[in-house]
Amino acid sequence: MHIYITFRLPDAARALVADALSPDDVCIWGQDLPETERKAAFLQADVAFGKPPADWLTESQQLRWVQLYSTGFDDYLPLYRSGQRPDVIITNLKGFFAQPVAESAIAGLMALYRRIDELARLQTQKKWVGGAMRPTMHLLHRKHVLVLGAGAIGQAIQQILNGFDCTVTFVRNSQPPTMADLDALLPYTDVVISVLPETTETANVFNEARFALLKPSAVIVNAGRGSLIDEDALLIALQSGQLAGAVLDVTRTEPLPADSPLWHCPNVLLTQHTGGGYDEEDMDKLRVFLRNFVKYKKGLPLDNIVDFDRGY
């Protein structure tokens, strides 16, 4: 069986792969090849790990399964929804990033509340403000937090917030309150944390009308998908004082264009889609793939098969 790995992994990963494969398995490390040779090598693979270009999937006659190294699979949605669905199983890393994303979301929120971002800027300027900043700081303690998405990330966020005695309300599709109840909940919310996937229902879920429902002291944290927020409406809400702050781990366009006003907007913390990162990330991703690979070879059901019809 031929396995194609699309991205670079630490040297220790190669030893882990070698130990896991049987003698008749061949692992092709795409990053070792000249760019001009990678596609041809991919087309020989039965299994791929990483994020191959979507159009390569339609050209391959050999490929049967792709294990994505991410939770998101936006690049593949048009391919499947247009009826070009190849006979390929796609699995993702659903739930894998729950703890790091939860910690990053709360860290960003705390940075705004405790003015850590501003203090870091003052440090680079060697400017002492000290006591004058104290009245501008806020507590997370006992805040009302609305979490959009009750999956693994949402649950991890709740566990952290429990330590601050926060009141946590989930908005989900499976049971009330649902997205239909969102407008009624927003006026009573101190913090909104979105970890929703991108679907047709979630696009621009936060728009001018919904920002207007929030109290001026509210903060929004987006650790889901950039398409969930109308960024023009967000800028207006922040600049007008309708919204106190925003933590954005994701933006509509990534990398964020250099001319985006978000770079310079006060009370915006941009964490550049690093929320899921940690020191053992790549090795742990590989371990997930290898566990699924064992199941694949045994003909067992794979973990985290993507449901393209549902969009997650």
Automatic annotation (TrEMBL):
PANTHER family, per database record: 2-HACID_DH_C DOMAIN-CONTAINING PROTEIN (PTHR43333), D-ISOMER SPECIFIC 2-HYDROXYACID DEHYDROGENASE NAD-BINDING DOMAIN-CONTAINING PROTEIN (PTHR43333:SF1)
Database matches in InterPro entries: D-isomer_DH_CS, D-isomer_DH_NAD-bd, NAD(P)-bd_dom_sf
Keyword Ribonucleoprotein applies: no
Keywords for the protein's UniProt record, in alphabetical order: NAD, Oxidoreductase
UniProt GO molecular function: NAD binding; oxidoreductase activity, acting on the CH-OH group of donors, NAD or NADP as acceptor
Entry-linked Gene3D superfamilies: NAD(P)-binding Rossmann-like Domain (3.40.50.720)
UniProt keyword NAD, yes or no: yes
Residues in D-isomer specific 2-hydroxyacid dehydrogenase NAD-binding domain copies: 107-275
Protein name: D-isomer specific 2-hydroxyacid dehydrogenase NAD-binding domain-containing protein
SUPFAM superfamilies cross-referenced by the UniProt entry: Formate/glycerate dehydrogenase catalytic domain-like, NAD(P)-binding Rossmann-fold domains
